[in-house]
Fold this protein.
Amino acid sequence: MASSDPAFLALAVQAGLVIASGLTLLAGYRVIRGPTTPDRVVALDTIGTNVVAIAVLFALQTGFASFVLVGLVLAIIGFISTITVANYVTEGDIIR
Amino acid sequence: MTAAEVGLLRAVVVTALIAVGSFFLFVGTVGLLRLPEVYNRLHATSKATTIGAASMFLAGFVYYGPGGQGLTSLVGILFLFLTAPTGGHVIARAAQRMGVEFYGRAEWPDPMEPAEAEDD
């Protein structure tokens, strides 16, 4: 946060960070308990999306604007890993 | 790189977008925890968390302005909207091929419909 920003903006960013972090923790429950493998993949995908949001909020909070780029790269990695695991579950291997 | 002076209106818009994003992330995660089986959970998370994260990106775009990391935020929104439905579809198809049961009496392919040739 730049020092000239209004106080309620800093408060909102901080609240958003707390909410997104707590939700990421809760999604971990489904990763551990989820009865089937696709359940775990869905939960990990959700965690990835939450971490993207956390990265953007972190960029807003600290002023390291490049963390938006970190969020974009995390989204790309999450997509690729989702496709890979789905492929592995159905085909039995990744590289054919 | 630091953002220039952020006016009051922009700060209000950024706050509203962060609130909307937090709400949708919350709804998506509650759906992930509470719904009965994988297809329903997929339905909750693939829409809600996508809107939530895209709203956070939009907040970043409003904060940083059109250029630099604001542009990166727009690319991120575009990417999320392209990939989240694709990923959800792929997981659902993988789960159905694995033989994960549907909730209740739902069946697919529909036994009442005439069978169609499924391309593989």
Q: What stands out?
A: Chain B has one domain: 8-98. Chain B has three helices and no strands. Chain B touches chain A through 55 residues (CB under 8 Å).
